[in-house]
Design brief:
The chain is of the alpha+beta class. It folds into 2 domains: about 5-145, Jelly Rolls, CATH 2.60.120.10; about 155-250, Orthogonal Bundle (Arc Repressor Mutant, subunit A). The protein has 10 helices and 10 strands. The chain has a 7-stranded mixed beta sheet, sandwiched between helices. Strands 5-4-7 form a 3-stranded antiparallel beta sheet, with no helix packed on it. A hairpin with a 2-residue loop joins strand 1 (about 15-20) and strand 2. The longest helix is centred in the last third of the chain and has 18 residues, at about 200-220.
Length: about 270
């Protein structure tokens, strides 16, 4: 292992958040098959990883790659050879996913895409951030300029306001009826518009928002039990189970996590 890789591996895991996006950089864990509530970019910082052809069935084989784009709510499994990974969780209310799919010439609705055209640029930005060559503000600017999309303007303002309320009050798990009332829509209509806007069902997005809150609490040095309680989970066991289902690993893996924030351009989500 090179001195540069050894130096990076001594760094604690890092969680960077700006707006509705989140970036995790840290050790590669043995991830079980799982579904993220938002689209995610996976990048092997020290080398390639493998993406399962059929999650949960190793006999179907794995695709070896350095980067992958995984749609929201898509079952997937990674097998890491890289000792350090980056996971960039995209903004469900922006054109992040659509821009990447367009650049890659990829049809939205297809399975995860391995080996991205922007891989070299993306990996370079994240390696510079992980190694301390650039600060987070510089890395964020480069990601927004070269990889990510802009905020979408086709989501009705009242619906957007209701989604922002959901994120601010994730620990309360706002009901479908309450959110629909805030958006001035019937519950059935709000449910359809919500899925169109975010790409996932309301129940799953609620859990994603609560997970974001819990990770921020953990990053401030609080215990898993405290994070579970303050984020609205019924118990630490419930939190651990939901976390593994969402991220494919136990929340105890985030021990030593550090948190970095960037200025927010609009109301935050998880």
């Amino acid at each position: 292992m090179s001195p540069e890789v050894q130096a990076r591996n001594r760094h604690p895991p890092l969680l960077c958040q700006w707006g509705a996006r989140a970036l995790y950089i840290g050790p590669a864990f043995g991830l079980s098959p799982h579904r993220n509530a938002v689209a995610v970019l996976a990048i092997g910082l020290d080398g390639p990883f493998e993406l399962a052809e059929l999650p949960g069935d190793p006999s179907r084989g794995f695709t070896r790659c350095r980067s992958a784009l995984i749609p929201p709510n898509t079952l997937h499994q990674l097998r890491a050879h890289s000792t350090r990974m980056a996971f960039l969780y995209l903004d469900a209310l922006s054109s992040d996913f659509a821009r990447l799919a367009d650049v890659e010439g990829w049809s939205i609705g297809a399975d995860a895409l391995a080996g991205l055209a922007c891989e070299r640029r993306l990996t370079g930005i994240l390696l510079d951030l992980d190694g301390g060559a650039v600060d987070f503000a510089s890395a964020r600017h480069a990601l927004e300029r070269d990889v990510l999309g802009a905020s979408r303007d086709n989501i009705p303002a009242k619906v957007l306001e209701a989604i922002h309320f959901l994120n601010r009050h994730a620990f309360e798990r706002p009901s479908l009826t309450d959110l629909a009332r805030r958006a001035g829509l019937s519950p059935s209509r709000f449910r359809r518009v919500f899925v169109t806007a975010t790409g996932v069902p309301l129940r799953r997005y609620r859990i994603w928002a609560a997970m974001g809150m819990a990770m921020r609490i953990i990053a401030r040095g609080r215990s898993l039990t405290e994070a579970a309680h303050e984020a609205g989970f019924s118990s630490s066991a419930h939190f651990s189970s939901a976390f593994r289902d969402m991220f494919g690993m136990a929340p105890s893996s985030l021990t030593g996590l550090t948190l970095d924030h960037a200025p927010r351009k609009r109301a935050t989500t998880a």
